[in-house]
Structures are given as C-alpha cells and as structure tokens.
Amino acid sequence: MTRLTGSALRLTAFIGENDTWHHRPLYSEIVHRAHAAGLAGASVFRGIEGFGASSLVHTSRLLSLSEDLPVAVVVVDTEERVRAFLPEPDALVAEGLVTLEACEVVRYPDSDRGAPASGPGDEGP
Fold it and tell me: Which among 11, 49, 107, 118 could bridge 75 via Cys, Cβ 3.0 to 4.6 Å?
C-alpha cells in the first residue's frame, strides 16, 4: 500500500448504480482494479439525487426513479500513479463522467492502524 502525504491527484468517476462490467457492478470493478494497481485508496459514494448526460433526474424520493441512483467512485494517490491508472476507467466507463482534481493529503495513516512507522534498524531515542 502506498504511503501518501502532500500533493496528490483525485480521480472521480460519476456513474450509475446499475452500471455493470461483465455482470459485476461497475463501481466494484473500478475499486478492485485500483486495489490491484496498488493505489493508495478508493471509495464509492452513493448519491441520493442527480442527473447526467441523459438529463433524467434520478432520486431516492420517488420509487420509480430510485432504481439507478448516482454513484461516485473516488480514487486518490500521487499524480503519477493516478495518471498511470487512467486507462482503466477510460476502458470501463462507457456512460459517465471521469474527472481529475489536484488535492493535498494531510493525513493517511499506515496500514498498521496507527503503529509508528519504523523499519529495521530504526532505534528509538
């Protein structure tokens, strides 16, 4: 897993909850490919209302339109690593929006959940 602080790049894919890739949820495919690529992290956020290129508003307030709510898949890592990953969502997202935004990571704990970062030979004071 990547240790990450400072300047980073955030990739966000805005897709539909029902979008699929080979009978698997598209959001899950993107997350698993980001994980396989060793990126620092990826999360999926389910929206309660939105519209895209189709101009059809999807909302959780109306039962008839709540079947395909908007989903945002967010991936964060260094600019170099995110740009190297770009062919993945490009190949997967047929209908949706993919954006890149510069961001700054102010806290990203080690995978040891708060354990001090020390390696072999690192001695305490």
Answer: 11
Between CA 51 and CA 73 the distance in angstroms is 16
Longest CA–CA span in the chain (Å) reads 64
What is the Cα–Cα distance from 99 to 115, expressed in whole angstroms?
34
Local structure of residue 106 (DSSP, 8 states):
S
- Side-by-side strand order, sheet with 97-105: 41-46, 70-77, 6-16, 97-105
16 pairs with which residues across the strands? 70
Count H helices, E strands: the chain? 3, 8
The DSSP line for 13-50 is EEEETT-EETTEEHHHHHHHHHHHTT-SEEEEEE-SEE
**Could you report the per-residue pLDDT of 12-24, keeping only the tens digit for each?**
999 999 999 999 9
Residue bearing tokens 């008839």: 64
The upper half-sphere exposure of residue 93, i.e. CA atoms within 13 Å in the direction of its Cβ, equals 24
Q: Which residues of 82-92 are buried (b: 16+ CB within 10 A; e: fewer)?
A: beebeebbeeb
